[in-house]
Structures are given as C-alpha cells and as structure tokens.
Amino acid sequence: MTGVFTVLCIQRNNLISDVLSVAVHNSGMFPVIVSDMDTAVSTYKTEKPDVIVMDFTPGNDEDYSFISEVRRKDFNTPIIALSMEARARADASTREMCISCITQPFTVTEILKQLEDVRECKETDTLC
C-alpha cells in the first residue's frame, strides 16, 4: 500500500472525536472526522477511507443503515465499532459486518492498536 492511510471517524461525542483525531494524526494516519451518519455516507463516498471507526449504538437504525450502505458498495473496508453498550459485542449484525467492536471503557491505545493491525493487513495485502 502506498500513500496516505485514511481513517474515517464517525463520532457523536466531541471530546472523543478530538482525542481520536489527534491520536490518529500523531500515528501517521489521516483522520477524517464526522459527527453524523448523513455526513458519514457522503464522506465515505468521496474519501474512500482505508478503515472506518464508528460510534455504534445497538438498535440505532442510522448506524445499521450506514454499515449496510458501506457493505453494499464495498465489503472490504474494515469497520471498527466503538460502543458504550456491552451488548453491541454480542449483536450478530455487528459481528458479521465489523472486524471488531470495542466497548467502553476503551482506550485510545486499544483503538490505535486495531488501526495499526488494519494498516499492516493493507500493506501486506492480507485480509483483516
């Protein structure tokens, strides 16, 4: 893989999005931050990110719609779900459509580790 490694971060919480933006940038990746699903869909289409890190709430139709939209167009873009609810990890749709689901309390280090793993997969052309 050559070029910039783009991370689309969809986060409703401004504090988390600010921290993620700085951490992702300091790790040599290019963060694209959005705060709602409508903007996320259009940004996904224009930016074609290497990975998506998204705020995920089980039962939220907007979240499922976004994931479904991405999967209809491209099943290879990894999605990492961040959730405040432990049940998100057990949700069958989440497990099927996301490479991982990190539930609170999560750390920036944990998220960056997942992103580094994805970057390594893309650089070596292996499946994530």
Blueprint of the fold:
Blueprint: E1 6-10, H1 14-26, E2 30-34, H2 37-47, E3 51-55, H3 61-73, E4 79-83, H4 87-90, H5 92-97, E5 100-103, H6 108-123
Parallel strand pairs: 1-2, 1-3, 3-4, 4-5
Helix pairs in contact: 2-3
The parts where pLDDT drops under 50 for at least 5 residues are none
* Average residue-wise pLDDT: 85
Number of DSSP helical runs? 6
The domain count comes to: 1
The CATH class label is: Alpha Beta
Report the end-to-end length measured between terminal Cα atoms: 14 Å
Description:
This protein is an alpha/beta fold and 128 residues long. It has one domain (6-123): Rossmann fold (3-Layer(aba) Sandwich), CATH 3.40.50.2300. It has helices at 14-26, 37-47, 61-73, 87-90, 92-97, 108-123; strands spanning 6-10, 30-34, 51-55, 79-83, 100-103. It has a five-stranded parallel sheet with strand order 2-1-3-4-5, sandwiched between helices.
Please outline what is shown here.
The protein is α/β, with parallel strands linked by helices.
Output the keywords.
128 residues, alpha/beta, Rossmann fold, five-stranded parallel β-sheet, globular
